[in-house]
Amino acid sequence: MSINNINSSNNPQIESQRIQQQNARKEAVASPSVAAQEDSVSLTQSAQELNKLQAQAYEAPVNKEKVAEIRNSILNGEYRVNPEALASKIAKIESEIFGA
């Protein structure tokens, strides 16, 4: 039993609203957003330079024999780090990067 025909599917006003809502949903799904078509991405100059450096690093030659030698010495527990030489190289790289 419906009250004032509110729940009745025979009510033309309610049926019309339901059809309009369905059509609006279909249109929203079918047509892409205008804003999405206008989106774009741009990289800063430093990001572009970093990209180039990364590509160069991947293309750099690798001494596979030396890598295998170091890997084996690490696995065998024979690899030793010279702390003074490491600290010196880190300081050199930092001074090149930061100009200190």
UniProtKB/TrEMBL annotation:
Keywords: Bacterial flagellum biogenesis, Cell projection, Cilium, Flagellum, Repressor, Transcription, Transcription regulation. The keyword Lyase does not apply. Pfam families: FlgM. One of its GO terms (biological process) is negative regulation of DNA-templated transcription. Residues 1-11 have a biased composition (Low complexity). Residues 12-23 have a biased composition (Polar residues). Residues 1-42 are annotated as: Disordered. Residues 39-91 form the Anti-sigma-28 factor FlgM C-terminal domain. The keyword Transcription regulation applies. InterPro entries: Anti-sigma-28_factor_FlgM_sf, FlgM, FlgM_C. Belongs to the FlgM family. Responsible for the coupling of flagellin expression to flagellar assembly by preventing expression of the flagellin genes when a component of the middle class of proteins is defective. It negatively regulates flagellar genes by inhibiting the activity of FliA by directly binding to FliA. This is Negative regulator of flagellin synthesis.
